[in-house]
Each structure stands twice: as C-alpha cells, then as structure tokens.
Amino acid sequence: MTEQHSPGQSQGFERGTDGPKVIVAGVDGSDSSLRAVAYAAGLARRQRALLAVVYVQPVLAAGTAAGVPVADTTDEIARGLVRDMHEATEQVKDIFEVRWEFHTFRGDAYNGLVTAADQLKADAVVVGASEQAGHRFIGSVAVRLVKAGRWPVTVVP
Question: Ranges of Polar residues compositional bias (predicted)?
Fold first, then answer.
C-alpha cells in the first residue's frame, strides 16, 4: 500500500511557512557565543528569517549582597554587545543583509533562553558551546536546551 500526500492536505499544525521565521541566538560575549551569532546570522539571511540575539543578564544575589553593582555591569555588557552588533552590521551592510533584534532577559542562561524562545516564538535556537570546564560534569546550557526538545538547537563550537 502506498500513501500519498498532496500539498493541500494538512498533516497537523504548521505555521504555514517553509523554514524558520525566527532564529534565537544566545550571546554572552564569549568567543563561542559570538561565533554562534555569526552562524545564526548566516542562517537567518539564507532563510530570510528574523535573527533574535538574546543576552541573558545574570542575577547574582551574592554580588548584590557584597555591594557590587551587578545590574549596572550587566547593563553595560548588554550595551556593548548591541554596539558591537551595530558595528558589525554596518561593516557588511552592502553584501550581507539580515533582519535582527537584540533582547535582554534577566535570570540564569538556560531559563532566560527558554523564556526568550517561547516569547519570540522561535523556530530554532543557536548557542555557543560552553567554554567552562565544569560543564562536562554538571551539563551546559546547550545540553539542557537540547534535552528540553522544544526547538531544533544548533551548538556552535
């Protein structure tokens, strides 16, 4: 018995588009996260998708208790990342065009990226491989996103 599928036949929920429309890329300023954003930008350009660059600002109770201005520091990091994105976009604007937005969320990286991907209705998530040695034992954000199984996740080395 042969089963055929015609284009007009519905096989379940679909957003009605081919390929991703929103690609979330997590960035924290590390080399691997910057490579992940570059990779995601290429995907977004080829798919004509929106690139949503997400920086999750850590909330460090211990730093706050010690009098360290954590929010000011992470706000400055976010401003620096946006500035870098604008500069990179300006340098390649005539040869490489991609629609992008920058979003910040507060919290731990995993939950911040999950919240971002849910709120932005992400079709895919791209993150850099962890550069911290301890993550081999306790699990990285990338591994946790893959295990969540909610979106296709690409991990860029």
Answer: 1-12
3-state secondary structure 61-92: HHHHHCCCCHHHHHHHHHHHHHHHHHHHHHHC
Report pLDDT for 63: 47
SS3 60: coil
CA distance 111 to 145: 9
Q: Is 60 exposed, middle or buried (0-12, 13-18, 19+ CB in 10 A)?
A: middle
Architecture (CATH level 2) of domain 22-156? 3-Layer(aba) Sandwich (3.40)
Give dist(CA 88, CA 38) in Å, integer: 10
Indicate the domain borders of the chain. 22-156
Q: At what angle do helices 109-119 and 141-148 cross, to 10 degrees?
A: 40
Q: For the chain, which residues score pLDDT lower than 50?
A: 1-2, 4-6, 10, 13, 63-65, 134-138
Rounded to whole angstroms, how far apart are CA atoms 133 and 111? Answer: 21
Q: Tell me the two tokens of residue 97.
A: 């065009």
